[in-house]
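Reviewers asked in the last cycle whether our approach scales beyond single polypeptides. To address this, we selected a multi-component target totalling 775 residues and predicted its structure end to end. The input consisted of the following lines:
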Amino acid sequence: MIAARDGRVARVIRWLRQLHGMSVKELRQLFRDRVLSIWVVYIFSLNILLVGGAPSMELHQAALVVRDGDRTTASRELIHRFQPPYFILTGTVRDEREAQDLLDDGEAMVVLDVPENFAKTLYQGEAPASAQLLVDTSRSQTGYLAAAYAQRIATRYGGEWVDRNLARRGEDPARLPAIDNQRRVWFNPNLEESWFRTISELLTMMTVACLLLPAAALVREKERGTIEQLLVSPVSPLQVMLAKVTAMIFVMLAGTLIALFGVMRPVYGVPIEGSLTLLLVLTAVYTFTNAGLGLVIATFARNSAQSGMLAVLVVIPIVMLSGTWAPIESMPVWLRILMTLSPLRHFINIAYGILLRGEGLDLLWDSVLTMGVLGAVLFAISVRRFRSQFG
Amino acid sequence: MNLRRVFTVAQKESREILRDRIVLLLAFLLPPMLFLVDTYGSSRDVANVAFAVVDHDDTTLSRDYASHFIHSHYFRFKGSLPDLRDAERRLTDRKVQFVLVLPEGFQEKILSGRVAEIQTLLDGTFPTTTRTLQGYIEAINAAASGALQTDFLSRSLGIPREEAQILLQPIRLETRYLYNQELRNIWTVTPSLIMFTMLMAAPLLMALSVVREKESGAIYNIYSATITRGEFLAGKLLPNVGISFANAIGLWGLAVGWFGTPFKGSFAFFLLATFLYVACLSCMGLVISLIVPTQSSALMISLVLSVLIGVQFSGMITPVESMKGPNFVLAHAFPALYYDTILRGVFLKGVGLRVFWKEALFLAAYPAGLLWLSHRMFHKRTPQ
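The resulting structure, written as C-alpha cells, was:
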C-alpha cells in the first residue's frame, strides 16, 4: 500500500521535475534569441511608458482663422475669446475663398466669420446677431469638439449681453431657472487617459506575446526536427506542450509586475484597487488560455512563417474587437456575440475590474469561468492534434 | 544591372508566393481583413449606452426632463430606481454606464426661477467613451435648460417665446461642417486605415521573403551566383511592391464601395502617392530583413515597428499639430504621416498635387534612401 503510494508520489515528482526542466529549456531558448528577448522586455517597459505619455485626444490649439467684417469692439471681443489651449489664432482672411483655400491646405481647422452689422444687431436686440463658423470635420471627433467649444465660447460671451438686456427690462438675471449638472466620475475620477491606455496596451501586448511566442516555439521544434528527439526521450507530448505554457506564464507574470510597478504605478499613478494576487493568478489563467490558442495554431502550420502569419490573422481581430480600444456597445450584435469566444474579451473585464474597480471573484466569476473553459478546450485540442501528428 | 537577372529573381519570388498557401493568404487576405477589422474596431461612435434614472422629485417637470434622455437614440433606458444605493450598485455591476439623479424639489426650484442641481454618476473606466458621453449629456441638459428659461422668461415678461429666445441667446453661432457634414466617424477612419493597413502588411510581406531564404539557406545560392546585390534586391522588391500596390487599390475599393467614404480627389494622384508609399514600406521591410536572423523575429520587429509608427507617429490618432517635442520630430521622420495627410486631403477634401507636392517629394525620397541603405547592408559574403 505504502510502497504503491510512494511509487505514485515519486512518479508525480519525476513528472514535475521533467516539466520543470522542459520549462527552463523553453525560457533559455526564448532568451537566447536576442531580438525576441529585447522585444519582450520592450513591450512591458518602454512601450507602456510611451503609450501612457501620448497626448490625449482632447482638442489642442486648433488653428483658427477669422474674417472680421464688422471691425467693432463687439466683434473683436468675440474673436479674442478664442484662446489656447483649445484654439490659436493663426491669421485673418478677407473673403470666403481665401478661407476655403486655407481649410483645403489644412492650414486652418476653424474659420470664424463675423459679418457686417454684427455689433449693430447685438445692440438692437431684435434679432439674434449671427456669426458663421466653418469647421474642418475630416477628423470627425476633433471637428465635433472644436464646434462644441466654439459654441460654448459664443454662449458665454452672449451670456454677458443677456444679463445687460434683462437688467434693462427690469428682470433679475440671477432669477432665471437653470439646471446645473454636477458630474461625478467613478473608477477614474479625473478621466486620466493614461490609466486606460497603459492597461489596454499591457493587455494587448500580453495577448500578442503569449499567443505568438508559444506558437513560434512549437513550430521551430517541428521545423528543426528537435521534436522527434524530445518524443523519444521520457517526456510525454503533454509535458512538451505544458512546458511551453508554464514558461510563458513565468514571462507574463514577470512582465506584468515590471509594467505595473516599474511604469504604470510610479509614472502614471494607475491604482490597484483589488487584490494583486488575484490579478496575477488570473493573468496566469489568461496566459494558459492564450497559449492554448497559439499552440492550436502551431499544429496547423508547417513552418514558423506560416504559424506567424496565422497567429497574426487570429490575434489582430482579437486585439481590435474585444473592447480594448473601441467600445463594445457600438459594435453590431453579431460581432459582440462572436467576440465572447475571444479570451481577451473576458480578461479585459477582469483586469479593469481588479485594477480600477476593486472587484473580486464575486463579481468576476462568470468572466473567469468562461476564460478558464475556453483555455481548457483550446489546450485539449492542441494536445490532441499534436498527439495525432506525432504520437 | 542586368534586367534579365532581375526579372528571373522576380519571377522566382512570385512563384514562391503563389506556391505557399499561407504566404498567399498573408499576401492577399491579410490586408482586406485587417482593414475591415480595424474599421469596425475603431468606431468611436457612442451608442446603446445603458443608463438608469433616480427621480426623487417625481413631478411633471422632472419626468419631462428625464424623458429627454430616455428618448435620445444614443442611450438605452434601463429603468427608474428607487434610491441612490441601488443606482450605485448598478454602476458597480456594469449594468449601467451612467445614472441620472434628480433631487427632491426639482420642479419647485425651476418654477420659482432658481437653480436646480442634478447629478450624473458616470463610469470612468474607459475615459474616451466617458468624455463623449459627457458631451452628449451636456448638450441635452443645455437644450432642456434653455427651453425652461425661455418658458420662464416669456411667462414673467409676457412676451412671445421667440422674443424671449432672442433675449436669452443674443449671439448665434451658425456652424457648418466641411468635408464630412454628418460627422461620420467611418469617413474619418477609412482613409487613415488604408495607410495603417499597408503599414502593417507591406513591410511584413517583404521582410519575410528575404528572411525565408536566409533561414532555409537558399540565400547561399544567391551568394555564390553571378547575380549582383542590386539585381537581387530589385528582383525581390518588384513582386512585393506590385502585390502591395494591388492591395492598396483593393482597400480603396473597400473604403469607397463598402463603407461609402467619398472620394473627391484625383485618382491618378492617389495612385502615385500610394505607389511611392508602398515602395517606402517595402524598402523598410527589406532593411528589417537584412538585420534579423529568423522569420519569427522578422514578424515581431516588423509588426511592432508598424504599430508604433502607425499609432504614435502617423497623425492617424493624434493630429500632428498636437504632438509635442520629440514626438513631433519623430512623426516627421516617418513616411506614414505624409501619406496620411495626402489620403485625408485626396479623399475628403478633393485636393491633390497642388497642395501636397511637398509630401509627395518626401515619400519619393524615402525609397531612394532606404534602397541605398539596404544596398550598403547586404553583403554577398557569409557573415563571420
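The mean pLDDT of chain A is 89. We regard this as preliminary and will revisit it once experimental data from Aim 1 are available.
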